[in-house]
Write a structure and sequence with these properties.
It is globular, with a radius of gyration of 30 Å. With 1017 residues, the chain is an alpha/beta fold. Helix 16 packs antiparallel against helix 18 and helix 38 packs across helix 49. The termini are far apart. Strands 12, 13, 14, 15, 16, 17, 18 and 19 form an eight-stranded antiparallel β-sheet that branches. Strands 5-6-10-8-9 form a five-stranded antiparallel β-sheet. The chain folds into six domains: 92 residues, Uridine Diphospho-n-acetylenolpyruvylglucosamine Reductase, domain 2, CATH 3.30.43; 170 residues, 2-Layer Sandwich (Uridine Diphospho-n-acetylenolpyruvylglucosamine Reductase, domain 3), CATH 3.30.465; 205 residues, FAD-linked oxidases, C-terminal domain (Vanillyl-alcohol Oxidase, Chain A, domain 3); 139 residues, Fumarate Reductase Iron-sulfur Protein, Chain B, domain 2, CATH 1.10.1060; 176 residues, no CATH class; 121 residues. The chain is built from 49 helices and 27 strands.
Length: 1017
């Protein structure tokens, strides 16, 4: 029985009633109205911030139908709905103060792949790279290429009629859409594709909403033909949003999809698409040309287009310099050699592809010969990236341009609001020159990159949106750029959709704008679907297009945060929403908690958004988050926290609890810190938040157990058999799981470590002992820095590390065990962490000053010295502790042999892979020098990350993360004994989940020595 609802008056009451009625009618997906979920969905990659009243996550088409039917009821005509996919739009397309309908969480299945006919059928939440990964085994791909392809959904691409790199060859998204399924307001399903004129007339004769749609659009196509031809520009990008020019196909067929593609959810909910796919070119070569000036690159591109490459992409010096400071540069530096005497200030990336290698090579040869002979533009030289993998690496740098621009230093950051203009390519250089003059007249810096072959350049003026005077420039700059693009025969919105820049639509469409209004009215008569964008129904006098300065800006909220607080929390508040953390690829390490939950709260962007809002609210409540006020007494402080904790358990509302839940789901793997182009560092601000949160609320017992591990384990390890027996006892296991919140705690090793040390004549490292060494002895000595995990839980590995070093002819010294402090830092026990770090660093620094290198074993623990220690301790007091492979490379000359004797496969620790990518190459260098081959497998996170996988609340998520990437790789490679992993937590996770033992790379090297083969000298 459906409950009868009482009449409602306020807008909030209407939305509450709508959400409740949706539940009553059997909506099977999730419904979120908490402040945290709404906050995360309030932003995209634009300058805007609009807080929705609720968000719904349909499980299937039937759920979408329920939403659409309910919204059409007369009592809910004031409810507005906005579809959302990847949420990476630059113009606020998916932002609303109504209800978000997120089609990405559940509706993300590839339904059918027809290889013979080369088409696929997908749900709207499928990510572009996800689709191409499924198509690759068949030699197919879906074009065109987007910089956000690893998180952009097909539904989002259709709704913005996305284009991107290669669009001059491959066209726009619309050019690849064969059929769409759209849920209309009221719940009707519209299945649309190109149809013969007779079928279109038959559809128009229907006496329902679908009939009205066909009648309206056919009338426009028939009666406005000349006006359409006169107004629509002759551009590759055409006009996104209600594309009237393609209602009639060249062969006479009628295609309703031309107005649905680019409609930004303002006409209905696109739930399914059938797309044509193309054959992957067998061979690709990218010519990377450098220039002394950016304008040289632009002017040259116009001439280079005549040689008909697949695409020409351009990047300016600002993006290039930022790329050099990013993780991406590690893989592309060889293609962009730098000469300090003649710096590169612009580059063009010119791609050629062909199925015939010889023909391709001849084309590239002719092209490079042209570069050498043509003197119309000064060029600094060129390089070639040959093959799909090399081309992919270079494009990864170009793809990160959007995010990289957000990583400029200072409070002013590049802002996307006039950043996808399109003009005829022959006008581009002159247009950009005038565009630059405009920005220079306001004293603004900017970054540029784009698709010069299509006449599209992404220009982002650098503004501090917290400064009201700079934020006020949005209006005059938008007006000026709109006029400038019109002057040069172009468009203000050539690629990323209209969104909250729709106020310029009537000016560009002129006499055709009433036709857009008519289309909007027939699909959405009461202006409920993403209102204010593209067009408004002419039948509603009060309906108006939203103006660019009419919607709240992020800066409006950010300026409410105290400047001291803003600067202190830079790693959170500077997130620009580019969404790189939404990477779908399970074999990419970026944010495993997002991949496992598909909940955007559990992503770096989500957590950064929550921290920004939390800081703002704390300031509004008069709380100084930077204050360090000690309580009157320890007992009084504890009692206060106990009262607050009890109040929470009784249902007390505090936004801090929502932030806490999001932070507790973080693995603290630091992949975001290494991979986010803006360097959003969740583990850093997570730890700070936990410290502040637990100054008001009691900590769970788990935090103290984990935090004290390094201090208690040396004592407990004296009785390993007793400890292991206790952990195996059922009452203890029950208490740990339900009382402490920990499961499957690791067992202590039973190996006699001291006896092993005596065998290899290991000495304790003391200043007195080391100071007696001669310079030659120091060169042949090494100090091992112990960590609690490999020392006490994986003692055989620590012993084998010592044996390996001794066999190499080095004297091993063992630094006295001291707590590293990482568990304390992860749990937000920052005061205790600083004390532990200070004590440990003092001892290690004294040893280091004796001239003998310090070397760690576990990468996660070792990297703490160069990351958290460097942030916490004074400059000059941080010890330099090398990773194992770093020491191996420096300790011996290595000359790679001609051929490898054996091939191993390597799964690196995700923190090491993303924060020290060059160190992975060092492992390969070491193995190659020993006559071995080490292939690094693309992999995500193992799901353990310290103690995360042992925490009761995270067990299921940990298992999901493991199953997404590591488990298939372990199943594929474990049987031949060649699979290696250098992270303690990774190896323990494999053993825990699959009962399989993985070797450390050092064990493989030691096995090589034991077989009688000697390493290079």
């Amino acid at each position: 029985m459906i409950a009868r609802l009482a009449p409602t008056n306020s807008p909030q009451d209407i939305y509450q009633a709508f959400v409740q009625q949706l539940k009553n009618e059997g909506f099977e997906g999730e419904i979120a109205s908490d402040h945290g979920s709404r906050t995360v969905l309030a932003t995209d990659n634009s300058i805007y911030q609009r807080l929705p009243r609720a968000a719904v996550f349909p499980k299937h088409d039937a759920d979408v139908g329920r939403v659409a039917r309910l919204a059409a009821q007369p009592r809910f005509r004031s409810v507005v709905l906005t579809a959302r996919g990847g949420g990476t739009g630059t113009n606020g397309q998916s932002l609303t103060d109504g209800v978000i309908v997120d089609l990405s969480r559940h509706m993300n299945r590839i339904l059918e792949i027809n290889v013979e006919e080369r088409w696929v059928r997908v749900q709207s939440g499928v990510v572009k790279d996800q689709l191409n990964a499924a198509l690759k085994p068949h030699g197919l791909f879906f074009a065109p290429e987007l910089s956000t392809s690893n998180r952009a959904t097909i539904g989002g691409m259709i709704n913005t009629d996305a284009s991107g790199q290669g669009s001059c060859t491959y066209g726009k998204t619309r050019d690849h859409v064969l059929a769409l399924s759209t849920i209309l307001l009221g719940g009707n399903r519209l299945d649309s594709q190109a149809v013969e004129a007779g079928h279109a007339r038959q559809q128009a004769s229907r006496q329902d909403m679908i009939g009205e749609v066909y009648r309206c659009t056919q009338e426009i196509a028939d009666n406005q033909q000349q006006l359409i031809q006169d107004i629509f520009p002759k551009l590759n990008r055409c006009l996104t949003g209600y594309d009237l020019a393609h209602l009639r196909e060249p062969d006479g067929r009628f295609n309703l999809n031309s107005v649905l593609c680019g409609s930004e959810g303002s006409l209905g909910f696109i739930v399914e698409a059938r797309l044509n796919v193309l054959q992957i070119p067998r061979h690709s070569i990218l010519v990377n040309v450098g220039y002394a000036g950016f304008m040289d690159a632009l002017r040259d591109a116009k001439a280079l287009m005549a040689l008909k490459p697949l695409s020409i992409e351009t990047v300016d010096s600002k993006v290039l310099m930022l790329a050099m400071q990013d993780i991406v540069w590690h893989g592309v530096a060889e293609y962009f050699p730098q000469d300090p005497a003649r710096p590169t200030l612009g580059i063009n990336l010119i791609e050629f592809s062909d199925d015939d290698l010889q023909r391709l090579e001849q084309r590239v040869h002719d092209f490079t010969r042209h570069l050498k002979s043509d003197t119309s533009v000064s060029r600094l030289g060129h390089t070639l990236a040959v093959g799909s993998e090399a081309v992919k690496r270079v494009y990864s740098m170009r793809k990160r341009s959007v995010g990289l621009l957000g990583n400029v230093q200072g409070e002013a950051r590049p802002q996307p609001f006039v950043e996808d203009t399109a003009v005829p390519p022959e006008n581009l250089a002159d247009y950009i020159a005038e565009f630059r003059d405009l920005l220079d007249s306001h004293g603004l810096e900017y970054g540029m990159f784009g698709h010069v072959d299509a006449g599209v350049l992404h220009v982002r003026p650098i503004l501090d949106m917290k400064d009201p005077q700079q934020a006020a420039l949005i209006r005059p700059l938008s007006d000026a750029v709109a006029a400038l693009t019109k002057k040069y025969g172009g468009l203000l919105w050539g690629e990323h959709g209209k969104g909250l820049r729709s106020e310029y639509v009537p000016e560009f469409f002129a006499g055709l704008y009433p036709s857009l209004q008519a289309i909007k009215a027939v699909f959405d008569p009461f202006n409920q679907l993403n209102p204010g964008k593209i067009a408004t129904p002419a039948t509603l006098a009060a309906a108006a297009l939203t103006r660019v300065d009419e919607v709240p800006l992020r800066g409006d909220l950010d300026r409410q945060i105290d400047q001291r607080v803003w600067q202190s929390y830079q790693t959170a508040v500077q997130c620009n929403g580019n969404g790189a953390c939404y990477n779908f690829d399970p074999d990419d390490a970026m944010c495993p908690s997002w991949k496992a939950t598909r909940n955007r709260i559990h992503s770096p962007k989500g957590r950064a958004s929550l921290i920004r809002e939390w800081l703002r609210l704390q300031g509004a409540q008069g709380v100084d988050v930077l204050g360090n006020q000690a309580p009157a007494s320890a007992l009084g402080h504890w009692l206060g926290k106990a009262r607050n904790t009890l109040a929470r358990q009784l249902g007390q509302k505090d936004f801090s609890h929502e932030v806490y839940e999001a932070m507790s789901g973080c693995l603290a793997c630091k992949s975001c810190a290494g991979q986010c182009p803006v360097k959003v560092n969740v583990p850093d601000f997570r730890a700070r938040f936990l410290e502040l949160y637990h100054s008001r609320y009691l900590r769970p017992l788990k935090d103290y157990v984990v935090g004290s591990l390094e201090f208690s384990i040396p004592v407990i390890a004296r009785f390993p058999r007793l400890y292991n027996a206790m952990l195996g006892a059922r009452p203890v296991k029950w208490m740990l799981e339900h009382g402490v919140g920990m499961v499957d705690s690791p067992l202590l090793s039973l190996m006699n470590f001291e006896q092993l040390c005596a065998t290899w004549k290991v000495q304790t490292a003391t200043v007195k002992t080391l100071s007696r060494l001669t310079p030659q002895q120091r060169k042949r000595s090494v100090i091992l820095v112990q960590d609690a995990f490999t020392r006490y839980f994986e003692t055989p590995l620590a012993a084998q590390w010592i044996e390996l070093i001794a066999r190499l002819g080095y004297q091993v010294y063992l630094a006295p065990f001291s707590a590293n402090g990482k568990p304390l830092q992860v749990q937000g026990l920052l005061g205790a962490f600083k004390k532990a770090a200070t004590h440990n660093a003092r001892g290690l620094l004294a040893l280091q000053n004796c001239g003998v290198p310090l070397v760690g074993l576990d990468p996660a623990m070792t990297l703490v010295y160069r990351q958290e220690y460097a942030k916490t301790l004074d400059h000059g007091t941080v010890p330099q502790v090398a990773l194992a492979q770093e020491w191996l490379v420096s300790a011996m000359p290595i000359q790679p042999p001609a051929a490898a004797q054996k091939v191993f496969h390597f799964l690196p620790h995700c923190t090491e892979r993303t924060n020290e990518p060059a160190s992975i190459d060092l492992w390969q260098k070491v193995f190659a020098g020993w006559g071995l081959s080490l292939k690094v497998l693309p992999s995500g996170c193992c799901g353990m990350s310290g103690t995360y996988g042992h925490e009761t609340r995270n067990v299921k998520t940990s298992q999901i993360i493991y199953s997404q990437s590591w488990q298939p790789l372990v199943e594929q490679h474990h049987g031949d004994g060649t699979l290696l992993a250098d992270g303690y937590s990774c190896r323990s996770q494999v053993k825990r989940q699959d009962g399989k033992e993985l070797l450390h790379p050092l064990q493989a090297l030691l096995g090589h020595l034991r077989e009688g083969d000697q390493p290079p000298r």
